[in-house]
């Protein structure tokens, strides 16, 4: 029987190439660095799998120090000796080591281990992760949504034209950062991007009740397709109130960590989409449960990330296409991070505004360990 024998955790700092702000903080400033945790799981036959967690204190309470220490001192030791295919047992053991609060405890740390175990299992099976999860290897492309960072009309027009030249057709923007221009920006995106573009407004918990309905109506008039997370994650009653008159489809992000979190919103009819974000949700296994809830409620999928590196981008795309989803995916790490030291061949996976998955077993890519050890 093949068991988990060794768990190693590494931290890396990737250069930030462009400033990325949202209402609750920032994913980094140009010239700075972004910290990521990478996990290597080795089984009793010497095979390995890789996972990643990108903690963002502006989004939640996890930091690079807490993620690496949690994996090294708690979660990693808890899963040693576990049969590698026992994903249910994996999460039971992690739960016994780090319990939950109102929702999943330390989801970013859990996600890194979960991802590594799924990568290991699929590699051992000789299958791309999407096929290991029950999908078809022929479904292999996910269109990306380009994240706009400007908050002036002329600058947004320029950004869209440049992105379209690179093959991007869909766009997302951060609302509630420069609220006075949000409606103008939304109208500009629709006009320049065209009628076929999926336009995605993400408020990142930044709106207040008096302005939320008026902004939602303005977005609907401008042709925005979805408004994501208008209110703080723990303010379910505000979503109930907005939903009664809201003319635009709604989605939640920060409010949906565990499958039970999403179930509450879906059961009350408060959301129109499930946003898949495996790092936020504790990994692939819990995300499968969220997808089952969405399917039962008749809700479609969207895909996003935490400005993660290529490993997470490919993992979430593998998960998405297993269930027939081809985008748009707001996976914007390549817009803001220089990943070349870890993934020098990234260009063969991401081009023409899309992610292209190969037939390599597992997630399909692994970081250069020599670059991690030299960091």
TrEMBL record:
Pfam families: MR_MLE_C (PF13378), MR_MLE_N (PF02746)
PROSITE patterns on file: MR_MLE_2
Source organism, top-level taxon: Bacteria
Keyword Flavoprotein on entry: no
Gene Ontology biological-process entries: amino acid catabolic process
GO molecular function: metal ion binding
Matching InterPro entries: DgoD-like, Enolase-like_C_sf, Enolase-like_N, Enolase_C-like, Mandel_Rmase/mucon_lact_enz_CS, Mandelate_racemase_C, Mandelate_racemase_N_dom
Keywords: Metal-binding
Record keyword ATP-binding present: no
Residue span(s) of domain Mandelate racemase/muconate lactonizing enzyme C-terminal: 153-249
Family: Belongs to the mandelate racemase/muconate lactonizing enzyme family.
PANTHER family on file: D-GALACTONATE DEHYDRATASE-RELATED, ENOLASE SUPERFAMILY MEMBER DDB_G0284701
Protein name according to UniProt: Mandelate racemase
Taxonomic lineage from the root: Bacteria, Bacillati, Chloroflexota, Ktedonobacteria, Ktedonobacterales
């Amino acid at each position: 029987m093949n068991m988990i024998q060794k768990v190693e955790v590494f931290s890396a700092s990737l250069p930030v190439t462009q400033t990325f702000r949202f209402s609750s903080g920032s994913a980094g400033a140009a010239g700075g660095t972004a910290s990521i945790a990478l996990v290597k799981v080795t089984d009793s036959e010497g095979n390995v799998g890789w996972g990643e967690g990108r903690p963002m204190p502006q989004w939640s309470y996890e930091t690079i120090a807490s993620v690496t220490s949690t994996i090294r001192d708690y979660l990693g030791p808890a899963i040693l000796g576990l049969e590698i295919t026992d994903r249910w047992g994996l999460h039971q053991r992690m739960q016994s080591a780090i319990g939950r609060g109102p929702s999943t405890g330390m989801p970013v740390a859990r996600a890194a281990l979960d991802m590594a175990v799924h990568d290991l299992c699929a590699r051992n099976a000789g299958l791309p992760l999407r096929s290991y999860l029950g999908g078809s290897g022929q479904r292999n492309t996910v269109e990306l949504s380009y994240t706009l960072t400007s908050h002036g009309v002329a600058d947004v027009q320029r950004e869209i034209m440049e992105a379209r030249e690179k093959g991007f057709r869909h766009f997302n923007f951060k609302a509630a950062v420069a609220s006075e221009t949000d409606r103008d920006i939304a109208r500009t995106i629709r006009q320049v991007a065209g009628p076929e573009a999926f336009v995605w407004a993400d408020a990142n918990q930044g709106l207040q009740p008096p302005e939320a309905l008026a902004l939602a109506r303005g977005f609907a008039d401008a042709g925005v397709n979805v408004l994501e997370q208008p209110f703080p994650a723990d303010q379910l009653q505000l979503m109930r109130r907005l939903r009664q008159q809201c003319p635009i489809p709604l989605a939640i992000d920060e409010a949906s960590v565990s499958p039970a979190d999403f179930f509450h919103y879906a059961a009350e009819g408060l959301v129109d989409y499930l946003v898949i974000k495996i790092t936020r949700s504790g990994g692939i296994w819990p995300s499968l449960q969220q997808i089952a809830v969405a399917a039962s409620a008749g809700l479609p999928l969207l895909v996003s990330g935490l400005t993660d590196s290529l490993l997470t981008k490919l993992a979430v795309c593998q998960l998405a296409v297993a269930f027939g989803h081809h985008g748009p995916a707001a996976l914007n790490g390549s817009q803001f991070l220089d990943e070349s030291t870890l993934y020098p061949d990234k260009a063969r996976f991401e081009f023409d505004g899309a992610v292209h998955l190969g037939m390599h077993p597992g997630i399909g890519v692994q970081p250069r360990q020599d670059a991690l050890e030299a960091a």
